[in-house]
């Protein structure tokens, strides 16, 4: 699988399912379960150590970027929780289309048929848990304030 993850500022407002979640959706999640689910559903593309695929910044012949790392060397932490959730739930292409973005092709599959919303949040919480406190703080700034 190939994956394109681009800034999706408009995505948060376009997908109603994300609006129901609080600003800190990853608080209290089952990180151990998320780690197992990541291994079963994500590691084949994003790497067992969250390292991504080689040359992840260079598109292939079809213009699709390889799966990026989810560790601190990638850009996953640059995105807000709702954006990451929607991209994972819908898949890259549907998420891009829902946000009105054109000109990009994503190989990221959607997981709404195989994972529950809670499981997706657990995976995202696991990924977040691997980041340093500094990167977690920077990522927190990309989410709406907690009310």
Task: Describe what this molecule looks like in 3D.
The protein is an all-alpha fold and 147 residues long. The chain has one domain: Orthogonal Bundle (Cytochrome Bc1 Complex, Chain D, domain 2). Helix content is 41%, strand content 0%. The protein has 8 helices and no strands. The protein has helices at residues 11-14, 16-19, 31-41, 43-46, 81-90, 92-98, 117-129, 133-140. Helix 3 (31-41) packs across helix 7 (117-129). The relative contact order is 0.25. Mean pLDDT is 83; it is low at 1-23.
In the predicted model, the low-confidence regions spanning at least 5 consecutive residues are 1-23
Shape: globular
Secondary-structure arrangement, i.e. CATH architecture: Orthogonal Bundle
What is the class in the CATH system?
Answer: Mainly Alpha
Oligomer: single chain
